[in-house]
Design brief:
This protein is of the alpha+beta class. The chain has three helices and three strands, in the order H-E-E-E-H-H.
């Protein structure tokens, strides 16, 4: 599920060329996850690495994640898990 979430989030990324010819990319649904580089490919790779770290930190802190393309990383409430086991 994590891989699918990363792929879906990367599909939502927006890129632009900054002054000086460098590229900047961000994912609006993942505030604070961004990357930049001398080429679009470098910016894309930095964004992916930042996104992975952003998710790990968020999971550790119990942050809520926006559902992207139907993929939900948020933990289910304990009562919902108990209902599924019944």
């Amino acid at each position: 599920m994590l891989t699918e979430y990363i792929q879906a989030a990367m599909g939502q990324a927006h890129y632009e060329m900054m002054e000086g010819g460098r590229f900047f990319g961000e994912i609006p649904q993942c505030p604070g996850a961004w990357g930049e580089g001398a080429t679009l490919e470098v910016a894309r790779e930095e964004l992916r690495e930042t996104l992975e770290s952003w998710i790990i930190v968020g999971l550790r802190h119990g942050d809520r994640f926006e559902v992207i393309d139907g993929i939900d990383l948020n933990p289910r409430p304990a009562c919902a898990e108990a209902d599924q086991k019944a």
